[in-house]
Design brief:
Blueprint lengths: L2 E2 L18 E14 L2 E12 L6 E7 L6 E7 L5 E3 L4 E4 L2 E4 L2 E9 L6 E2 L15 E10 L2 E10 L2 E9 L6 E7 L3 E11 L2 E8 L9 E6 L6 E7 L10 E4 L4 E3 L2 E9 L5 E8 L7 E4 L10 H4 L7 E8 L4 E8 L3 E8 H9 L2
Antiparallel strand pairs: 1-26, 2-3, 3-9, 4-5, 6-7, 7-8, 9-10, 11-12, 12-13, 13-14, 15-16, 16-17, 17-18, 19-21, 20-21, 21-22, 22-23, 24-25, 25-26
């Protein structure tokens, strides 16, 4: 049903020029997807860290809100105050840090396979809610404008911020639209009863599993009318958490949402939810088994293995599409399918 592109991985860390000479790129993945005319645009999450690292220390690059520069926080590995969760994150004296700093970078393609990457970041940390980086964008086109939701990460938590562009060369930032901890936000490309609608993913600290919610807005900036719509399912492939992956697109049977789910072993797979055409809270069907799961070597092993994580699709007029996804938190890959094949998988679930 979903065929991995033979050219995978399409983009690897070695393809991306670091934003500064003492950094190295360790991930180019989880790209938002858009199309302008005959050009496919990927807005990549590019994760960087210090190139030369002392093995006795852990390092966190942090954007300094006062100076506008990136500082390096260090802690000794043998310090009892250090809690090294994995190579991505650590805690020191109760504070949370990331071992890399992410920004968003534009890649362009005429065939959707061979991409030309820009040398400089498109969106880099610029305020105190982005000091740990920008991650995992989703892109919704409405008219000539493209609205970008992305994770803005800092010591204050994970928020969702909004940016706007018409050409992916100049961007207008609109700041935080969902407070911590809320991520995996996708905005539907039409209004419902005069309101914009988003699927969001707040994370409860004490009660409840990470569940997809719906929110509504009169202007894309102020959101309310929150309610849960799609929850994890105990004992299944999406038992631990769910989150929106691609921006929903309309089919003859309703809106189709490609979402990700993780099990208790942090294995990330991809499934589908069919949503009523007029009611973005009404789920008509849902994948009983994943339509895509980690199988290829570049998905099973990497910076954080056993992960397939899409953030967008390129949907063509003939109803075929390319699903672009992050593999093992390291590379960008692609897979091809059609709307009919995806809908058929739901009818047999």
């Amino acid at each position: 049903m979903i065929q991995r592109l033979s050219q995978n991985p399409l983009i690897q860390p070695s393809d991306v020029r670091p934003s500064r000479p003492d950094f190295e790129v360790i991930g180019a993945f989880n790209a938002g997807v858009a199309r302008i005319g005959d050009e496919v645009i990927l807005l990549l999450r590019v994760a960087e860290r210090l190139k030369e690292r002392d093995p006795d220390w852990v390092t966190a690059p942090i954007w300094n809100t006062r100076t506008g520069e990136v500082d390096l926080f260090r802690a000794r590995r043998d310090d009892e105050a250090l809690d090294l969760e994995d190579e991505r994150v650590f805690r020191y004296r109760g504070n949370f840090y990331l071992s890399s700093l992410s920004h968003l970078r534009v890649a362009r393609s005429s065939d959707g396979i061979q991409f030309s990457l820009e040398d400089q970041p498109a969106l880099f940390p610029a305020c105190n809610t982005e000091s740990f980086g920008l991650e995992d964008p989703r892109i919704t086109q409405m008219g000539k404008d493209y609205w970008i939701t992305y994770k803005a990460v800092s010591e204050h938590g994970i928020t969702t911020a909004l940016a706007q562009t018409c050409d992916f060369r100049e961007f207008t930032r609109h700041g935080v639209i969902f407070c911590p901890e809320n991520l995996d936000v996708v905005i539907f490309p039409k209004t419902f009863d005069g309101k914009y609608v988003a699927w969001t993913r707040p994370v409860g600290r004490h009660i409840g599993l990470p569940t997809i919610w719906v929110a509504r807005s009169p202007d894309l900036l102020h959101w309310g009318d929150h309610e849960p719509v799609l929850a994890p399912r105990p004992g299944m492939w999406d038992a631990a958490r769910v989150g929106s992956s691609a921006v929903p697109f309309l089919t003859a049977q309703g809106w189709l949402e490609i979402y990700h789910g993780a099990d208790v072993n942090h294995r990330y797979c991809v499934g589908l939810a069919l949503i009523d055409a007029e009611d973005p809270t009404k789920i008509l069907a849902r994948s009983e088994v994943p339509v895509m799961q980690p199988e290829a070597p570049y998905e099973l092993s990497g910076f954080f293995g056993n992960v397939v994580f899409p953030c967008g699709v390129d949907l063509r007029p003939d109803n075929t599409l390319t699903l672009y996804y992050g593999a093992a938190d390291e590379t960008t890959c692609g897979a091809s399918t059609s709307v009919n094949e995806l809908l058929a998988s739901l009818s047999t679930s």
